[in-house]
Amino acid sequence: LNSGKSVLSAINRDKYDVHELIIDEPMDVVNKMPEGVDFALLILHGKYGEDGTIQAMLESMGIKYSGCDPLTSGICMDKNMSKKSVKSIKYTYCSMDNCKITWFNRL
């Protein structure tokens, strides 16, 4: 919630009609969304926000949004799937078990 409040305080309300939408469960996107929204600036963390659920719901409602599409969000949320994806495109990386910083280099 703090990230959202910080962003909300910085948006020029003379230029944009801004609505805060706190999502506790996926259906809140449908039930709490004001009429006429044309873009959603996503400032989400954790379940639903980072796994592609909210993004998929917005797409089904025809609302554009910031960030990754549902599939990419879901892959990134699943660390094992993320590692498999990185390996499949031949990026080298080290696991956090054996290094302090993870670097990605194209082969």
Contiguous uncertain segments of 5+ residues: none
Number of distinct beta strands: 4
Rg over CA atoms, rounded to whole Å, is: 17 Å
Strand order of the largest sheet: 1-2
Give me the secondary-structure category: mainly alpha
Give the count of helical stretches.
5
Globally, the shape reads elongated
- The rounded distance between the terminal residues' Cα atoms is 40 Å
Fraction in beta strands: 5-15%
SSE order and pairing:
Elements: H1 2-10, H2 28-32, E1 39-40, H3 53-60, E2 64-65, H4 70-77, H5 79-88, E3 91-92, E4 105-106
Give a description of the structure.
- By secondary structure, the chain is mainly alpha-helical.
- The protein has helices spanning 2-10, 28-32, 53-60, 70-77, 79-88; strands spanning 39-40, 64-65, 91-92, 105-106.
- 37% of the residues lie in helices and 7% in strands.
- It has a two-stranded parallel ribbon.
- α3 links the parallel β1 (39-40) and β2.
- The chain is elongated.
- The mean pLDDT is 83.
Condensed summary:
The protein is mainly alpha-helical and 107 residues long. It is built from five helices and four strands, in the order H-H-E-H-E-H-H-E-E. Strands 1-2 form a two-stranded parallel ribbon.
